[in-house]
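Hi R.,

Quick one: here's the RING-type domain-containing protein sequence you asked about.
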Amino acid sequence: MSNLFAFTTFYGLFAACVFYPPKEFVSMGFTISELASLWLGQELDSFIQYHIKRSIVTLMVHSLLPFGYVVGLAMRGHIDAVQILFGSENPIWLTLCICTLIGPMYTLYKILTWSKNNWSKHPIAKNLSIYCAGDENRTWTDIASNINREFMSISKLQIATNTTTKVVVTDNWIMQVSPYKLDIAYQANSSLVGYKVDIYQSTTTFNIGTVYAKYRVCTRQPGGRNFTIRLNFNDMENFTGKILMPITTEPSLAFPKTMKELWMDEIKQVIADNPVYISHEELEKCAVCINATSNIKLIKRCPDIPIRDDMPLCKICNCPPRSCIDCLVKWFIAKSVTGEVDQDESFFQRKSSCPQCRSTFCLLDISYVKYEPVEPSASKS
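And here's the predicted structure, written out as tokens:
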């Protein structure tokens, strides 16, 4: 009995790893798509055809797992296959064996049905056929060819939401790849609606935890299906920068500040405590964003002693105000802060270089600029 329990536990873990492979399995190539790569081919060569075949293989392997358990029991000697066939064993074993064969047989029937007329009955092909409405000369293969060409472009965006699902954004399409299907929408007649944020708190300092945002892709294509994508908040900037469809969010939905925004708030607070630089010349627009007024000047204040041996000395910057606070802080973060901020390291210990003359500066050297025009001297009476 203990051996049966051990085998059942082992096979249950094995089946779970097949359904939802952990990152270690993915990195070692122990996934269905990798093991069947000789038949599937390369995803980059023909994206749609690849995922049609991948969904078939995945469905067949998953349907065989219960039958594999029974085969394992027979091979381990826990049941006698011959006695089951002749009815000598407990009838429940025969019933169990028949039930485990229903899934593979039904899957085989569905695959044969899908394969008719060049796989036009497959769910992925039927989803593409929706975009052929109104044009009798176009078929799902024409849409597939268009998607395949866009997927081959280096401008596409792929975001792995977990080990079995990913979001793909091309120039005109947004797709979600999952084990059995491929959700797809044409960006020109779709919209994105954010409706939920999940926050998993972390006890680590400078870490807001893991944040996931749920979006609903709503298509206006007749016959099209809406679908939901779940993205890590760290991927949102790349995602929203790539898509073309309009984005709306629920009024009650509040996104937390990103790590970059938290850094910017802390840096701005430090700069606000520095002395203000008085300028008698009218301030121009920021040379970076060309929207805000340039309100930052670099004034060397720290002593000529590097804080660490690998830190350069701060230098005098003679550049006039040419940046706004937001652009300079973003520059400072990009050039001096990489990865997560160490808990024992302050922003005071970090340095960057002037965007114009490349003079080294630290946060103590940054000052807000206040414009005070020179009053004309009073005319002599």
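The chain has a mean pLDDT of 85.

Cheers,
M.
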